[in-house]
Write a structure and sequence with these properties.
Blueprint (H helix, E strand, L loop, with lengths): L2 H17 L6 E2 H7 L6 H9 L12 E2 L12 H12 L11 H4 L3
Parallel strand pairs: 1-2
Length: about 100
Amino acid sequence: MQTETKEEFRVRVFTLIGAIPEGSVATYGQIAGLAGAPKHARAVGYLLKHLPAGSSLPWHRVINSQGKISFPPQSEKFRQQSELLRSEGVQVQGGKIALRQYQWC
């Protein structure tokens, strides 16, 4: 991606993530595809990993293509993402979310 394209991609990704409704999830690949770069799921993860502290973007609504939270199960981020999803009514069992039930779009 060229510099201006990277910035446009970042804006599209953040706009899409901000549009995920409460109680729903999307996958990294789904967001990348909707942003026009279906082969850049890892870039979505990179952008989320580098969000500024205190960002209001609902990063916790983005999970991997297997319907799982990508953080290590014993990590604080795993616990935080699980709790945030549960607080929105999303069932999380062992770090897994039923995509058929909760996937956005």
